[in-house]
Amino acid sequence: MAASLICIAAGTEWPRIDAFLKLGLAQNCSDVHLAVGVPPMLRMNGDLMPIKFRNLGDNELEGYVTEILTKHQNESFRQGNDLDFSYVSRRRRSLSRQRVPQRRPVSARRSVRFRARYRRIERLALPPIVKKLCDYHQGMVLVTGSTGTGKSTTLAAMIDLLNQTKRLNIISLEDPIEFVHRSKNSQVIQRELNTHLPSFAEGVRAAMREDPDVILVGELRDAETISMAMTAAETGHLVLGTLHTTSAVKTIDRVIDALAGR
């Protein structure tokens, strides 16, 4: 059953894309997909559901996106680069922070995806072992899987649980900052790649000098980052991170291969 959406009046001073995000939040969806040639879609319980809206045109979708870009992001977009950034509505604070992977393929069919705010660990139907992993005081916990399988959402829920139940110094290194955590019982410091740190490896190195209890590494994407994360885990910190692998065995192989290739 398709969701419904009231069209936004042309010429509004607020970004038009806010209405789609508000609808996604109201429908409790995980993602909002916008692409040229099809109507906007919501991911509901794993399925993409079109809303009652016209097919989006190329110029229309580009207009939606450029309304929320910074000057630097817009320049990069005009040069044909992909963008992966966060967006906070100035008008609708209830929308929270949205992650926006914006892709510009060779063809004219551009697409953009907005991710909804994170959910608490109790609402994600995760196995009980995930909560137990949050009780570790040191070591490395890796969440793996292909794109879109919920790695970032799972880690955000784990950080939220630690933040609510323990008194820790949590340093999160992300690309970009996708879910904003307000410090509760713990202190949560979030840093963004290319804004606050030049690389994940440098971010881990700097974090280790700041008396952390938990270090979250958004992605273990190269040998140097993997090596620094393992060092942090071995020296008494709890390190949380992600890898783009599809099984525990392949994760171990990936780590070994990365370190062997240094």
Strand order of the largest sheet: 3-2-1-6-5-4
Number of strands: 11
Number of helices: 8
- The proportion of strand residues reads 15-25%
- Choose one word for the global shape: globular
Topology as H/E string? HEEEHHEEEHEHEEHEHEH
Structural class by sheet pairing and helices: alpha/beta
Task: Give the key terms.
262 residues, alpha/beta, six-stranded antiparallel β-sheet, five-stranded parallel β-sheet, disordered N terminus
What does this 3D model show about the protein?
It contains 8 helices and 11 strands. With 262 residues, it is an alpha/beta fold. The strands form 2 sheets. Strands 3-2-1-6-5-4 form a 6-stranded antiparallel β-sheet. Strand 1 and strand 2 (41-44) form a beta hairpin. Helix 6 runs parallel beside helix 7. The longest helix has 15 residues, at 151-165. 30% of the residues are buried. The model is unreliable at 1-12 and 104-110 (pLDDT under 50).
Task: Furnish the topology, listing elements before pairings.
Blueprint: H1 17-26, E1 31-35, E2 41-44, E3 47-50, H2 58-66, H3 71-78, E4 83-88, E5 97-103, E6 111-115, H4 129-133, E7 139-144, H5 151-165, E8 169-174, E9 187-192, H6 200-207, E10 214-217, H7 223-234, E11 238-243, H8 248-260
Parallel strand pairs: 7-11, 8-9, 8-10, 10-11
Antiparallel strand pairs: 1-2, 1-6, 2-3, 4-5, 5-6
Helix pairs in contact: 6-7
